[in-house]
UniProtKB/TrEMBL annotation, chain B:
It comes from Sinorhizobium medicae. InterPro entries: AAA+_ATPase, ABC_Ni/Peptide_Import, ABC_transporter-like_ATP-bd, ABC_transporter-like_CS, Oligopep_ABC_C, P-loop_NTPase. This is Methionine ABC transporter ATP-binding protein. It holds the Pfam family oligo_HPY. SMART domains: AAA. It is found in: Cell inner membrane. Keywords: ATP-binding, Cell membrane, Membrane, Nucleotide-binding, Transport. The keyword Cell membrane applies. The keyword Nucleus does not apply. SUPFAM superfamilies: P-loop containing nucleoside triphosphate hydrolases. NCBIfam families: oligo_HPY (TIGR01727). PROSITE patterns: ABC_TRANSPORTER_1, ABC_TRANSPORTER_2.
UniProtKB/TrEMBL annotation, chain C:
InterPro entries: BP-dependent_transpt_permease (IPR050366), MetI-like (IPR000515), MetI-like_sf (IPR035906), OppC_N (IPR025966). It comes from Sinorhizobium medicae. It comes from the Bacteria. PANTHER family: ABC TRANSPORTER PERMEASE PROTEIN, OLIGOPEPTIDE TRANSPORT SYSTEM PERMEASE PROTEIN APPC. The lineage of its organism: Bacteria, Pseudomonadati, Pseudomonadota, Alphaproteobacteria, Hyphomicrobiales. One of its GO terms (biological process) is transmembrane transport. The chain crosses the membrane at residues 26-52, 105-129, 150-174, 209-228, 268-291. This is ABC transporter permease subunit. Keywords: Cell membrane, Membrane, Transmembrane, Transmembrane helix, Transport. Coiled coil: none annotated.
Length: 324, 326, 304
């Protein structure tokens, strides 16, 4: 098991390095950093100064090493817009995004798992068919449009919930959190539901597919033949097998939730990383863009690693084989 | 004394409901099993033998359902039992062993968990006692170092060992009846013999009646007291094993026996039954075996009754006799 | 009966005779039929938009700022009826939707098609070449699939800059890997079959084996993925345009229309965002229904 974890760690490092190359090439070679960095009205001397400052006159491999060096120190340069270190800006906004993504994932699980289980266990009921058609809708609805409609109904028409910002926050573990105040939760509700919609459908469909795959298995029949109560057959024999794909997907989808939060954050003016990156792309704030991308790469690699470990723990076939 | 299990005119259908009939996988099947006896239920795949077994324990997969008939188990009609009444019988008084041991046990639960839950499903004892029972049961079916094996997962066992675990689970509560659905088909020949021997030992000790579903006449001749031969959902011949195998009356039974390799002479072409088993939704009119039968004539256009003669019965108007067969 | 089906599915593409069977299968589902007809109507609307739409929403000369933000059913100064209202620049929403559909469908089809070609070629190549080529391609695929599409798209747009064309490029780069993985998996199974062995024995040129023998067998999954991908691409384009990274304000796509309506939503002017969103939703649902059914029909496992 230790060797397999080490092997996965090496793979993870490989992915990070590969992504730095891709991001580097993307930003510095395909896009012309001179155009991005320098005011088009700048004079020749100014251009030369900036080029020298960023080392753009150096050969590519040296530039890459410089880039890597900065990366290792978490130094991505100062934001053009805010004039502060880019990484600091990202980190400041990370808790808001995490909070949103975790809330959305929780909602998606709370609704998706039981509904999917129900639809899988009783596929012929009308209610199951309704759930499944609903999930197709959830799949097809563009998130950003749903966000607007949520605002229209719950804020504009009904006036129940606020439309933007995090509301009052409280500090916990050195970061600010909305869910600790009542008003904050009211602010969190709409964005979290908005972000959760797509994932709810996904988890629901996945759960149902899993149930339908597991139910006809002989071991489920055998469990019934032992005289187990139906409750135990479902809760232990079916669910435990179901958890393996579900955990994998939850890990992956959590990352995707963070990426997709750009949309929800833009709509609800949620002050997270996503809102920052969109503003940065619009303003061509290169250091922030690079910092965000590298942050996401790191996040995904860590997530994938955690999923692998969870998977190993959940599935005895993997766990025990790698031990041998 | 009445038999432990009496199946009367059982009809199991797939699909169809409320007046419309579906595909009849089991058609008007009647037989009985006495306490402590072994019935070999024989037929090709698709003959309805497994469905009969699953009908008795009421674990038919949708859209299968018992359309009519009675399944009297110790005087109680199982087909009218509630789901909860059935649950209390399953594993406790009627157990089942499945065909493929590699998929019978849940891959993500330890063998111990799967055995202990089987104990606890019917007895309110402490977990420790249940564990002890599980361990003893494993030892009983010849699994070495049972204490450690309880913590192991199914994939760490060989196929034969997994089938032993399944058998240990089936015998946990010393059931009155075990339905064994081709429990040795997926195993190597050497393992087959061991499993059969194990089974025989346990049934003799516990006086358990067995319905052994198989297509292998050699196993039946070795293990069973009685035999029931199914063809296209119907019983075609029943009786004591030795009599039926030595002196088959139904042409299909005779054909089956003739196609066992050891029954054939060396150098001679292997005998076989011509044609294929008809699809259940396109059965020929009259006797289902008619089109493959050399003896068939216009009289076979009407389905013959299962005619009893002594302790045997067969469903044929032109039965094979020893004289005509040789 | 099962064996019979197995033999049939071994054959690669539907022969002409089987096509009608596939069609019959497809239309056996009412949902799929409705989806298909809706899609057909939408395509026609988009195609003929210049002739049927009441106004050319991209021609600023036709827009009258005085007609801005009129409610659905309002009449313009010149007696023209805006059935779905107007946006802030006095653009007729109905016309905006019809023209926006053009952009959306074009982006969707173009990117899905290009990604399919690139991904299929890469997947076939990986499966056929094996060894190092395969490892390099598949590692790249794995790498890419471990990041969500929208992140890949954002990354590309960060590099390439804003604009519809760049959105198309970003979508192609973000989606090709899905095809490559599926095609490789299918081709790997196919590669082991005897007829490929036979083709190699005959010393047919590599490209011929690839495109004449392997490719047709991989087409069914590619068609299904491509259909679904069109829907995804349309949704993504709308999302990116909504975020201000796609279509320009003067030539709005559906996403851009919704985006311009966003700021007026809070004051109760719902129609600028609402109707284009409905159009988007109907389009995506229709494509998904068709794709869902295609998957069932073309899947050999369901061929009963």
């Amino acid at each position: 098991m230790v060797t397999s974890i080490i092997r996965r760690l090496i793979q993870a490092v490989f992915v990070v390095v590969a992504m730095t190359v891709i991001v580097f090439i993307g930003v510095n070679v395909i896009g012309n950093p001179v155009d991005i960095l320098i005011n088009p009205d700048a004079n020749q001397a100014e251009r030369a100064r900036v080029i020298a400052h960023y080392g753009l006159d150096q050969p590519l491999w040296r530039q890459y090493l410089l880039f890597l060096q900065g990366l290792l120190h978490g130094d991505f340069g100062d934001s053009f817009v805010y004039g502060r270190p880019a990484m600091g800006l990202i980190l400041e906004r990370l808790p808001a995004t995490l909070e949103l993504a975790i809330s959305a994932l929780t909602i998606a699980l709370v609704f998706g798992l039981p509904l999917g289980l129900y639809a899988g266990l009783y596929p012929n009921r009308v209610s199951s068919k309704l759930i499944m058609s609903g999930s197709i809708l959830g799949f097809s609805l563009p998130t950003f449009w749903v966000g607007l409609m949520l605002i229209m109904v719950f804020s504009v028409e009904l006036g129940w919930l606020p439309t933007n910002g995090r509301g009052p926050t409280l500090e916990l573990f050195g970061a600010q959190w909305s869910f600790l105040t009542g008003e904050g939760i009211r602010h969190l509700l709409l964005p979290a539901f908005n972000l959760a919609l797509f994932k709810t459908s996904l988890i629901l469909r996945l759960t149902r597919a899993g149930v339908q795959e597991v139910l006809p298995q002989d071991y489920v029949k055998f469990a019934r033949a032992k005289g187990l109560r139906e409750r135990r057959v479902i809760a232990v024999h079916v669910l435990k097998n179901l958890m393996i794909p579900v955990v994998t997907i939850i890990g992956l989808e959590f990352g995707s939730l963070i990426a997709f939060s750009v949309v929800t954050e833009s709509i609800f003016a949620w002050p997270g990383m996503g809102k920052l990156i969109i503003d940065s792309i619009n303003l061509l704030d290169r250091p922030v863009i690079v910092a965000y991308l590298m942050m996401m790469v790191l996040l995904f690699v860590v997530l994938n690693f955690i999923i692998d470990v969870c998977y190993t723990i959940l599935d005895p076939r993997v766990r025990l084989d790698s031990k041998a | 004394m009445t038999a432990l299990l009496q199946v009367r005119n059982l009809v199991t259908e797939f699909g169809g409901a409320k007046g419309r009939s579906g595909i009849r996988a089991v058609n008007d099947v009647s037989f009985s099993v006495e306490r402590g006896r072994v019935l070999g239920l024989v037929g090709e795949s698709g003959s309805g033998k497994s469905v009969t077994g699953f009908s008795i324990i009421r674990l038919l997969e949708r859209p299968g359902r018992i359309a009519s008939g009675e399944i009297l188990f110790d005087g109680v009609d199982l087909s009218r039992n509630s789901e909860e009444e059935m649950r209390r019988l399953r594993g406790k008084r009627i157990a089942m062993v499945f065909q493929d041991p590699t998929v019978t046990l849940n891959p993500v639960l330890s063998v111990g968990t799967q055995m202990i839950e089987a104990v606890l499903a019917h007895e309110s004892v402490s977990k420790d006692i249940a564990r002890q029972r599980a361990r003893d049961a494993l030892g009983l079916v010849g699994i070495p170092s049972p204490e450690e094996r309880l913590a192991a997962y199914p994939h760490q066992f060989s196929g034969g060992m997994r089938q032993r675990v399944a058998i240990a689970i089936a015998f946990l509560h010393k059931p009155d009846l075990i339905i064994a659905d081709e429990p040795t088909t997926a195993l190597d020949v050497t393992i087959q013999s061991q499993i059969i021997a194990e089974f025989q030992k346990l049934t003799e000790e516990t006086k358990t009646a067995v319905i052994w579903i198989t297509h292998d006449l050699a196993i039946v001749s070795r293990l069973a007291d009685d035999i029931a031969v199914m063809y296209a959902g119907r019983l075609v011949e029943t009786g004591p094993v030795s009599e039926v195998l030595n002196d088959p009356r139904h042409p299909y039974t005779a054909g089956l026996i003739a196609s066992v390799p050891s029954q054939n002479q060396r150098g001679e072409r292997l005998r076989q039954i011509d044609g294929m088993t008809p699809a259940l939704n396109r059965l020929p009119q009259g006797c289902s075996f008619r089109r493959r039968c050399e003896r068939a004539d216009d009289g076979c256009l009407v389905i013959p009754e299962l005619a009893p003669s002594g302790d045997r019965s067969f469903r044929c108007i032109h039965p094979v006799t020893k004289v005509s067969a040789s | 009966m099962a064996e019979h089906n197995m033999q049939e599915t071994d054959k690669a593409l539907p022969e002409p005779g089987r096509l009608s069977k596939y069609l019959a299968d497809f239309f056996a589902s009412p949902a799929a039929a409705i989806g298909f007809i809706t899609l057909l109507v939408i395509c026609c609307l988009a195609l003929f938009a210049p002739w049927i739409s009441p106004q050319n929403p991209y021609d600023l000369m036709q827009l009258d700022i005085m007609d801005g933000r009129l409610a659905p059913g309002s009449e313009s100064m010149t007696g023209f009826v805006y059935h779905l209202g107007t946006d802030s620049q006095g653009r007729d929403i109905l016309s905006g939707i019809l023209y926006g559909l053009r952009t959306s469908l074009l982006v969707g089809v173009l990117s899905a098609f290009a990604a399919a070609i690139i991904g299929t070629t890469a997947g076939l190549f990986a499966a056929y070449m094996g060894r190092r080529t395969e490892i390099v391609i598949m590692r790249l695929v794995d790498l890419q699939l471990s990041f969500p599409t929208i992140l890949m798209a954002l990354m590309m747009l960060a590099v390439l800059g804003k604009g519809v064309l760049n959105v198309v490029i970003a979508l192609i780069i973000a989606e090709w890997a899905t095809y490559a993985r599926t095609v490789r998996a299918t081709a790997l199974v196919e590669r082991e079959k005897e007829y490929i062995e036979a083709a190699r024995m005959l010393r047919l040129p590599g490209w011929r084996i690839l495109f004449r023998h392997l490719l047709p067998n991989c087409l069914a999954p590619v068609i299904v993925i491509a259909t679904m991908q069109v829907a995804r691409a349309i949704g993504l384009e709308a999302t990116l345009s909504f975020l201000g990274l796609g279509a320009s304000v003067t030539e709005p796509s559906l996403g851009m229309l919704i985006s311009t309506g966003y700021q007026y939503l809070l004051t109760g002017l719902y129609w600028i965002s609402f109707f284009p969103g409905i159009a988007l939703l109907v389009t995506i649902v229709a494509i998904n229904l068709v794709g869902d059914r295609l998957r069932d029909v073309l899947n050999p496992r369901n061929a009963s």
